[in-house]
Amino acid sequence: MRVVIAEDNALLREGVVLLLTSAGHEVVAVAASGPEVLPALLEHRPDVAVLDVRMPPGFRDEGLRAALAARAEIPGLPVLVLSQYVEETYAAELLGGGASGVGYLLKDRIGRVDEFLDALERVAGGGTALDPEVVTELLTRRRDDPLDSLTPREREVLQLMAEGRDNATIASQLVVSDRAVSKHIGNVFAKLGLPPSDSGHRRVLAVLAYLNRG
After folding, report:
1. Is residue 12 predicted with pLDDT exceeding 60?
2. Degrees (nearest 5) of the Cα angle 160, 166, 169?
3. How many Cα atoms within 13 Å fall on the side-chain side of residue 140?
């Protein structure tokens, strides 16, 4: 894959470059500040962009703004956002449109190489990859809504769905049958008023669109 990396921390940036090149990917450009990000993305049009949320000069949301602007110019551009902390507002803004090919991971996830590379490939393929801590924030940030009607098991299934896990992985992790997972997913969609879908990615995106609307 062709990748653009935007990260102001030189040590982390070079570490990600080394990690990706060692995995057989091509890093076509790097950016160390917010103003560098959008031009690099528009010039190289990568298969996926890996972006820090907070970058110079303001260290607020420069990376995220560049990601949103790039996706407006290049619809469907896969973007994997990295953050030091769970920043719920930024995650909601990125995911609010229900668009495919988006990810939001905490930076310590990079150290779990297999998980990071799997998330990157999932996002590049049009899927969704959310850090479990981010998912927890999204699932708990609203009160008095249909989420309250979900059973503990249904919430577990919904969280794993939002992380981008398929039915087989959910079944394995929860130590239940595939049929049980399908039943739980059907219950989740029914309670949230969302139509079931044959596509794992569309299913996740529908849930995220629901969580972020309004």
Report:
1. yes
2. 75
3. 9
What Cα–Cα distance (Å) separates residue 93 from each residue in 37, 102, 154, 197? 18, 11, 25, 24
- pLDDT (tens digit, 9 = 90+) per residue, 29-60? 999 999 999 999 999 999 999 999 889 998 88
Q: What is the pTM of this model?
A: 0.69
Copy the structure tokens of residue 179: 């049929």
Q: How far apart are CA 196 and CA 204, in angstroms?
A: 10
In this predicted model, what pLDDT tens digit does every residue of 81-98 receive, in sequence order? Answer: 898 876 666 666 676 655
**In 62-100, which positions are buried (b, 16+ CB within 10 angstroms) versus exposed (e)?**
bbbbbbeebbeeeeebbbbbbbeebbeebbbbbbeebbb
Beta pairing partners, 31: 6
The span from the CA of 159 to the CA of 165, in Å, is 9
Q: Can you read off the two tokens belonging to residue 106?
A: 């905490």
Q: Map tokens 């528009």 to a residue.
A: 42
Contacts 24+ apart (CB under 8 A), 203-210: 203/161, 204/127, 204/128, 204/161, 204/162, 204/164, 205/98, 205/99, 205/100, 205/128, 206/98, 207/158, 207/161, 207/162, 208/95, 208/98, 208/128, 208/138, 208/162, 209/96, 209/97, 209/98
Alpha-carbon gap, residue 179 to 58, rounded angstroms = 50
- The neighbouring-strand residues paired with 106 are 83
